[in-house]
Amino acid sequence: MIEPSTSPQSGNVVPGYKQSYSARKMYYAEDPNAIGQKIIQLVCAYPDPQTMLSEIARLLGEIFCADACLLAANPSRGDKAQMGLYRAGQSVVLPKEAKAQLLGHPLFADVVAGAEPLAIADLQGTDRWPETRFCWEALPVRALLRIPTRDRGLANGMIAIGHFQPHCWSSAEKDLLKAIANSVTLALSHAQLQQQVQIGHRYQALLNKLSGALHSTSKLSEILSLALAETSQALEVERGWIVTLKYNDPLHTHRRRKSVPQATVAVKEEWLAHSDARALSVERSFPLADCPFCTQAWQQAPQALEIAQAESASSKKASPFSGERANALLLAPLMGRTSSESNPAIVLGFLVFQDSSSRSWQADELELADWVSAQVSTAMLHNQALLQVQSLVDERTAQLKLSLDVQAKLSEKMRQQIEELQQLNQLKDEFLDAIQHELKTPLATMKMAIRMLRQPELTEERRTRYLDILEQEWSREDHLIQDLLTLQKLESNQFLIQPQQFDLKTFIDNLTQSFEQKWESKGLTLKVDYSTSNAARKSSDLALIVDTDPGSLQRILEELLANAGKYSDPETTVKIAATRQTSREGDRIILSVTNTGPGIEAEEIEAIFEKFHRGQGMTAQAVQGTGLGLALVKSLVQHLDGTIEVTSCAAARSRPGETCFTITLPQLQP
After folding, report:
1. Where are the beta strands (DSSP E) in 164-297?
2. CA distance 177 to 193
3. Among 157, 309, 337, 472, which one is least packed by beta carbons within 10 Å?
4. CA separation for the pair 26, 63 (Å, rounded)
5. Which CATH class is domain 500-666?
6. 142: which DSSP letter?
7. Rg, Å, the chain Cα set
8. Residue 628 in contact with residue 476, Cβ under 8 Å?
9. Other CB atoms closer than 10 Å to residue 481's CB: what's the count?
């Protein structure tokens, strides 16, 4: 049961700040090892360090029947430390500033320095009470039991148990907290490791991006902007600047004397964590002497200047980088080249990072800032060198431009000739390999027929038969040559298209008559179906008027019908469907040719449009063809700005196969 109590700060009633004695009654039924096992389970169950520490804080708070429990891993990192807070029966996530203020409180700040366990029954009755009142909102406790955690002899965090009212800590409570400290140490070490991994990932991402930018762009402004933004995000600061120095007296550039030179600080880049962040009114340029931080950083360069808590703008030591209140600053100098020991490197400027709350800059953060400043310095020196030699490069470029152009043209011409020769050789080899069978077989047949015709006692009937064979084989060779010539024109874009407007119904009816006569011996029938879309019917235009090249369309349909006749089962029907569709994209004519037969295997569908490709077993089954018909169809369809699709299901024991070629043609302007 939770009862209201009065706050020691003001005497006002604060809900939930007092618990009855029965509610906070301790129990020690659980063994420390069992508690440790629960902590390990929470470590394994929650990969997020914040959630894990919050759940462990809740567990300890419930075990000790405490009003609050605080776990902190590496508290010296301030608002960057991993922390879990359980208070008044629920987990609490503090804002960034409140977190830094709480962990920086004297009650907890000495943990890293090796503080001993601390047990206070009533903070209000001690000399710590005045300083404790400042963190009352975050941790409103009067009784506090605090113990540091150590990993391999070094402090890595702390555990703090508290009650809203005075409480006398018993030996059993202290012993239990000490007994489970090792398990909590493991959890804190795990949280630190997770944090280091996350920091490492951020740092590595920064290094990769900056290295990539240095190699991919020569624009200094892009490199500076990227370096400042990525480094500020990696360091998790609120503001960042890149400033440069312009010296009035060149003798001071190498810092031969300890006196501060007369120089102007110019702001080149500025970065804010978010648009509503409190931006400082930093002038775009100001004297170096007006900024004590820049002066101090200039004097101790090349070491970075780290300030955990800078003076506010209202203090006597105010600078352009001072905020309205105390904040943390880090100034990493941008160094030039070192010419000799007597002439130290010039300070080109500074990388300035600022956080709204005080923080202790860690070694890895300083190392990252040093590495980035070195890369930015290199980019600035490289940019200066580029500017100095730019005029010389332009002059040399003008002189060499003519000769380079001639050489480039010769090289390009030679490269093109080599590629053309390679392509010609490849095409020649492919052509000879593919056409070898198509040439040899008809020639062998023609040779045999000629020999038979030379026999003196040849009957007239057999003579006619052999002449028919010669004519058929000649026609086959002529058809092959015509197909090759047509494909060559299509591939070289020499094929002329002459669009005309005509009625597709009449066109198809005239074309199909010859095929019906050819297919009588095989028992094939031809069925034609005409239809229009709903949009076309609304226009009351029932004719299938098409604008395209009639010669190309005739060749396409002839090849598809011939292909369907070859691969159709006897006594089946070949279907032609013609449809006109009207849409926002324009009118389209859709033609499909469907036949019933063995079908096409799925793995062969992609290859059927290749030149000289024939299906498996077609030669053995004596199915005539050159393998050029479908390749010619596809090329013609593409030249008509159309598309062709194939769907097929191979024949099975219980059902025949079916193959459908679908062509979509747009209307072409005559």
Report:
1. 239-247, 263-272, 285-287
2. 23
3. 337
4. 8
5. alpha beta
6. S
7. 44
8. no
9. 10
Q: Is the pTM of this model over 0.85?
A: no
Residue type, 85: L
- pLDDT digits over 392-433, tens only? 777 877 777 878 788 888 888 898 999 888 877 876 676 666
Letter for the amino acid at 2? I
Instruction: Identify the three-state secondary structure at position 238.
Output: coil
At residue 626, what are phi and psi to the nearest 5 degrees?
-100, -15
**Which tokens hold the place of 99?**
């977190």
Residue 290's identity, in one-letter code, is D
Give the three-state DSSP class for 649.
strand
- CA-nearest of 327, 329, 266, 274 to 296 is 329
- Rounded to whole angstroms, how far apart are CA atoms 527 and 504? 15
Q: Tens digit of pLDDT for each residue in 610-639?
A: 776 665 545 444 445 566 778 888 888 888
Range 2-198 has CATH code 3.30.450.40 = yes
Question: What are the tokens at 594?
Answer: 């469907």
CATH architecture assignment, domain 217-385 = 2-Layer Sandwich (3.30)
Residue appearing with tokens 């359980």: 86
Q: From the CB of residue 428, how many other CB atoms can be counted at a distance below 10 Å?
A: 10
Assigned token pair, 499: 């669009």
Distance CA 637, CA 641 (A): 7
User: DSSP 3-state assignment of 417?
Assistant: helix
